[in-house]
Amino acid sequence: MTYWLGVLVQTCIYMIAIIGVSILSGFCGLFTLGHAGFMAIGAYTSAIVVNTFDVPIFVGLLAGMLLSTLLGLLIGAPTLRINGDYFIIATMGIGEAIYLLSQYLIPVTGGPYGYMDFHSFRGMEALFYVVPILIVVIVVTYFFIKSKHGRNIVALRENEMAALTVGINVYRYKMISMGYSCALCGLAGGLLAHYMTNVNPAMFTSTKSNDLVIAVVLGGRGSLTGAIIAAMILTPLPELLRFSSAQEWRLIMYGLTIVLVILFRPTGLYGDREFSISGLAKWIKRHSQRLMKRGEN
Amino acid sequence: MSTVALGLYNVCKSFGGLKASNNINIEVLEHEIYGIIGPNGAGKTTLFNLITGVIAPTSGTIRIYDKDITNLAPDKICGVGIARTFQNIRLFNAVSVLENLMIACQQTIHYSALDGCLRTPRFRREEKAAQEKCMAILEKFNLLQYKDVAAGKLPYGSQRRVEIMRAIMTNPRVVLLDEPAAGMNEEETATLAEMIRMLQKEYNLTIVVIDHHMDLIMEICDRLTVINFGEQLMTGTPEQAQSDQKVIDAYLGVDDE
Ligand SMILES: Nc1ncnc2c1ncn2[C@@H]1O[C@H](COP(=O)(O)OP(=O)(O)OP(=O)(O)O)[C@@H](O)[C@H]1O
Ligand SMILES: [Mg+2]
Q1: Which of B46, B227, B251 is the best mutation target for the ligand 1 pocket, counting ligand atoms within 8 Å of the beta carbon and taking the most?
Q2: Are residues B68 and B190 in the same domain?
Q3: Which of A199, A200, A196, A275 is nearest to A232 (CA)?
């Protein structure tokens, strides 16, 4: 597999995780600083399950998703009942705890050197897994947010009191958002494990957690299109910068991008709208009319 | 004798030392338009918060029809058939007007998350039904042209109307309106009075209105309760209230001897 195909695979994988975090932080308005931890759960679980029980990779992926979701709901159950600040702190704590455990639980995780020698994708196999899964994730998520249940999640972000008084069980929908985001992050983690052929703690640091939220903010809170575009920009960025030997500048670039977005486009690249063909047609029509007018003058 | 749609019995609520509601007894009859009036800080909004479960009463019982709702959660109380608007408007601002109404259709749309993710026939059927219901009320309120506008971007008066429509979309039996005429001029208030009457008939509602616009209250209310400093001053017809000495004193402010 060529280098650029590898970048493509990674972009698809992170896109799945970013879409997950977008449901929680963008649509539901609950910020998280620990979702790389849920990717780690998915990654280690899938690798270990595939290795130990000698099952096909997709079984491992499902196991990783399931465990990540269960853990997420376990964390959410007490913290989502109370005000949002506790939830952020809890996600930060769980992210850090998983990172430390993966370092020190050497018999299970392999410690700092990582867990390896498990069945992984061979050559182009990664693409055949990642691309169809990504497409399913995008379609299902789009349908989800355009359904009653997706609207309920946005409603509680917009005004929790009003959401309650129109009969929405706010706690339940916070749990659904948390479960959805953890499932997708667990899935992304599993895919990453089988693509990288090695799972190690450095892949899931708090910086990675922050990157996920940054991508959501950059793309626009409450826009699936925004999350997809942000993933397409931010995931290959470190790879591109690698050639300019400017790795150290990556964080500064990130910071700068965020400040620029907040200054000039506080709602994110895509606001809370979605890409649509009719929207594109309108945009083209509007701009072509403007151009024509300019031509007439 | 007609049925009691909403009943408050010996309801008390204290915030620390402050008695925001002191032994309130109100029986709102089915299909009545009922007024709650009183000076600023009298405890009117507190009553709505108690009824909708936003705050729990210190003591007393609240019933809707035969059901005791005293310690029910707000989302459950909505399911029992109470809807409200807020004194300081609470819309889902970033979301379009139509979607604001769709969100309120919790009682119309029952499909599961899986139905939604897979767009099953059930999803399509229920979405269509809810959308038609929302479009119908938008038309009735003359707001059809705003259906795709973000609710937070509408002028103030229209936002109030969207909030009322949203309340109706929850299929309520009792609707609580907290100062629906706030910030409106005389003409707008008159239109609102008309609209409240129309809603009551069209949707077979029982309506409770808090407002400071006396002309509105006097015109539309069958009966009313006057509250002052958390105390229930009087309950009766608008005419009785206008000639009640205690009420006049409360509004004009009388020095305690
Ligand atoms: N959650 C709360 N905590 C503490 N005090 C409160 C709370 N809610 C209301 N109060 C107090 O209770 C009293 C009654 O308030 P309420 O909002 O019910 O008045 P109101 O009759 O609606 O007044 P207005 O006409 O100004 O809307 C006020 O003194 C208010 O400060
Ligand atoms: Mg009030």
Answers
A1: B46
A2: yes
A3: A275
pLDDT of residue A122: 84
Residue B150 and residue B230 in one domain? no
Cα B79–Cα B124–Cα A173 angle in degrees, nearest 5: 45
Q: Could you list the residue range(s) of the whole structural domain that residue B113 is in?
A: 90-171
pLDDT at A54 over 80: yes
pLDDT above 70: residue B64: yes
- B86, two tokens: 């807020």
Task: Find the CB nearest A165 among B78, B109, B126.
Answer: B78
In a shared domain, residues B207 and B160 = no
Instruction: Assess contact for A49 and A189: CB atoms under 8 A.
Output: no
* Single-letter amino acid code for the residue at B227: I
Query: How far, in Å, CA of A189 to CA of A14, rounded?
Result: 9
**Beta partners for B59?**
B12
Per-domain residue ranges of chain A? 2-235+267-296
**Sequence-separated (6 or more) residues with CB below 8 Å from residue A110:** A116, A199, A200
Question: Residue B8 belongs to a domain with what CATH number?
Answer: 3.40.50.300
H helix or E strand, kind and range, residue B20: strand B18-29
Say yes or no: B62 and B124 in one domain: no
**Torsion on CA atoms B114, B119, B125, B129, rounded to nearest 10:** 90
Is the distance from CB of B109 to CB of A148 less than 8 angstroms?
yes
Instruction: Give the residue carrying structure tokens 């997708």.
Output: A184
A70 has a pLDDT exceeding 60: yes
**Ligand 1 pocket, CB under 6 A:** B 15, 18, 20, 38, 40-46, 87
> What spacing in Å lies between the alpha carbon of B41 and ligand 1's midpoint?
5
CATH architecture assignment, domain A2-235+267-296: Orthogonal Bundle (1.10)
pLDDT (mean) for A257-284: 71
> Are B179 and B75 part of one and the same domain?
yes
pTM for this prediction: 0.90
Q: Same domain, yes or no, for B73 and B197?
A: yes
**Atom 3, ligand 1: residue with shortest CA distance:** B15
